UniProtKB/TrEMBL annotation:
Sequence positions that bind ATP: A11, S12, G13, K14, N15, L16
Subcellular location: Cytoplasm
Keywords, in A-Z order: ATP-binding, Coenzyme A biosynthesis, Cytoplasm, Kinase, Nucleotide-binding, Transferase
Gene Ontology MF: a single term: ATP binding
Functional pathway: Cofactor biosynthesis; coenzyme A biosynthesis; CoA from (R)-pantothenate: step 5/5
InterPro entries, alphabetized: Depp_CoAkinase (IPR001977), P-loop_NTPase (IPR027417)
Catalytic activity: 3'-dephospho-CoA + ATP = ADP + CoA + H(+)
Protein name: Dephospho-CoA kinase
One CC-aspect GO term: cytoplasm
HAMAP family linked to this entry: Dephospho_CoA_kinase
GO BP: coenzyme A biosynthetic process
Family: Belongs to the CoaE family.
Gene3D superfamilies recorded: P-loop containing nucleotide triphosphate hydrolases
Length: 198
């Protein structure tokens, strides 16, 4: 089994790269989706989050209010680091567990893991290949605004809270520039996939 990490900043194009790898038969793990599942099902994690950030981050049904949590952490680097220190080990364990399950089932293809906070989580060494997806900041902001859900101020706060591409670069085996067309990105992904499979 080959394990590929897809990392990059907000709206850089990690989903597109994952979709393109899926077309090549890769199985995909999205760490954001995993985190949401853990917030819902992992009682030890929920307890630790409540201890750190207060019970108001969960509603009466025990569902995480991501907006409230984001408001608490994205403008406060200390709180953001604390959140990551709590959540990242759980995510890393869940990713490795899923890979082990697929391997035991006999899957020997590629697994691509979308991990925006790969470096911050200390997970880069868990992978055979790290793909860094980049796009210029203006393009990323426009993509976020088109998706909706965040104001321009919130988008810039998230960009500022993440590592820059320059700091991610030393961990990357390959860089995919997703500033242009989907076809251009597809060509880059196809070339990388052919290289890693031969």
């Amino acid at each position: 089994m080959r394990k590929i990490a897809i990392t990059g900043g907000i709206a850089s194009g990690k989903n597109l790269v994952a979709d393109l790898l899926k077309e090549h038969g890769c199985r995909i793990i999205d760490t954001d989706t995993l985190a949401h599942d853990l917030y819902r099902t992992n009682n030890a994690l929920k307890y630790e989050l409540v201890q750190e950030f207060g019970s108001e981050i969960f509603d009466s049904n025990g569902i995480l209010n991501r907006t409230k949590l984001a408001d608490l952490v994205f403008s406060n680097p200390v709180r953001l680091k604390r959140l990551n220190d709590i959540v990242h080990p759980c995510i890393r364990s869940a990713v490795l567990r899923q890979c082990d399950v697929w391997e035991q089932e006999g899957f020997n293809g590629c697994v691509a893991v979308m991990a925006p906070l790969l470096i911050e989580a200390g997970m880069a060494d868990d992978f055979d290949l790290v793909l860094l997806v980049v796009a210029d900041e203006k393009t990323r902001v426009q993509r976020c605004l088109q998706r909706g859900g965040l104001t321009e101020r919130e988008i810039y706060a998230r960009i500022q809270s993440q590592l820059s591409d320059e700091l991610r670069l030393p961990y990357a085996d390959r860089v995919i520039d997703n500033s242009g067309s989907v076809m251009n990105t597809r060509q880059q992904v196809d070339k990388i996939f052919q290289h890693i499979m031969h």
